[in-house]
Structure formats: C-alpha cells, structure tokens
Amino acid sequence: MKKTISLFVFLLVLLPGVLGITGEIGNARAVITREWNGMETLERTILVKNSNDVKVNIKLEPSDEIKDIAELIDKEFELQPGEERKARYNLKIKEEGRWDGSIFVYFIPED
Fold it and tell me: What SS3 class is residue 7?
C-alpha cells in the first residue's frame, strides 16, 4: 500500500501541467441570400475574443473552397487579455451560384 501511494505521488509530481489557449468567436456563421447582379463585393466581419490571461496572436485563413473569392483584410493581429476585435474580410462574388467555405481562426500564444 505504501509503495502504491509513493508511486502515485511520484507520478503526480512528474506529470507536466496542462496549459491551453482558448478563444471565442462571435457571429461565426454567415448565410447570405440575395439576387446576383454581376460582380459583387460583400463586406463581412468575424468577432474574435481573447478570453485568456495572456496576449495571443490571431491568424485568419480561408478554406480552399473560398480562397479565390475571400480577401482577408485583417489576416493577422494580436489581442491583449480580455480584448476583442472584428476581423474584416470581403467576399468577391464573380459568378452566380452557391458558395460554401470556412474562414479558420487560429489562436496562437505569444511564446
């Protein structure tokens, strides 16, 4: 019994702590239905929130499905703890049809 407790305490001390960066995004889904009348540019935003106690770097990247029509204005920026920002992007619709895709938001710790 004493060996089991000693082994448990030894493993508990050796196991590294788990640290993680979390983040929040608002208005994460955009469904746009409208009549198409030639080349159009739609201006959109994604609300990005830093809910951590440390500064984080934010990186946005369009998925392959929309990389030809998505223009990211705020591709990379940093957020202080508790700060939020609307990341701007444009969708340049060149032809009529349905477009499905994603804009990935990466939360990267400063270190």
Answer: helix
